[in-house]
Amino acid sequence: MALPIPSKSARALVTGASQGIGLAIARDLARFGHNLILVARREEILKDIAADLENKHGVIVEVRAVDLADQDQRAELIEEIKDREINIIINSAGIASFGPFKDQDWNYESKQFALNATAVFELTHAVLGGMLERGTGAICNVGSAAGNVPIPNNATYVLTKAGVNAFTEALHYELRGTGVSCTLLAPGPVREAVVQAEDMSIVDKVVPGFLWTTYESCSAETLQALSKNRRRVVPGPLGKAMNTVSSIAPTAVLSPVMGWVYKKMG
């Protein structure tokens, strides 16, 4: 099963498109000739990206400055796209927090749940009906290798990503034979190919450089997996290791160790 063929009327919708995985996938989709709708909060950055992609690849790129954690803004986008020809959706937007759950800022945790889980749930539903009617479409939801195992000091994030993981894989099996592919992207650490010392986050400092994968390689693996309707793609060496270890190591052993690491990140 190949990715849907680019057409003048269709759009590939990418959330979290202003940076990271979302931006890398948007660039590759534009290079393949797909017209785009880019969604993120920062309109000026999206406009710059859109202009660059249109100039390089001759595609149409629409931008939507939307905070997907905001219910009203999310509802407005959903009202629009449910009647649009969206043939690809990449649900990439997401945030994380580290440290004891009881100590976290509740407003941030609530936004994290809305962005990481509710937005994925609602946007997928909004475009799925049209895809099924047309008999073609591709859905990619960004979960995480972290969603495979309970991780202390990362509780809200693993709650959302475990849900996205299971939701997406369930849809993968539901949609067999419909012409609509559904793939879970469950990465481990992903970052720019080169990160300057002054720009390194705590995660950059904790995780050795050779274990990371780049946004560009993550995008390439993801689109290849989506075109083959694979259930799950886990790019990068640490992601693959986490995926394997989490399937065989006892939770009682693995969770405390990972929780100690994530506490350091907090």
Automatic annotation (TrEMBL):
A molecular function GO annotation: oxidoreductase activity
Pfam families named among the record's database cross-references: adh_short
Domain of life the protein comes from: Bacteria
InterPro entries: KR_dom (IPR057326), NAD(P)-bd_dom_sf (IPR036291), SDR_fam (IPR002347)
Keyword hit for Oxidoreductase: yes
Domain Ketoreductase per the UniProt entry, residue ranges: 10-193
Keywords per UniProt: Oxidoreductase
UniProt family annotation: Belongs to the short-chain dehydrogenases/reductases (SDR) family.
Protein name (database record): Ketoreductase domain-containing protein
Source taxonomy: Bacteria, Bacillati, Actinomycetota, Actinomycetes, Mycobacteriales
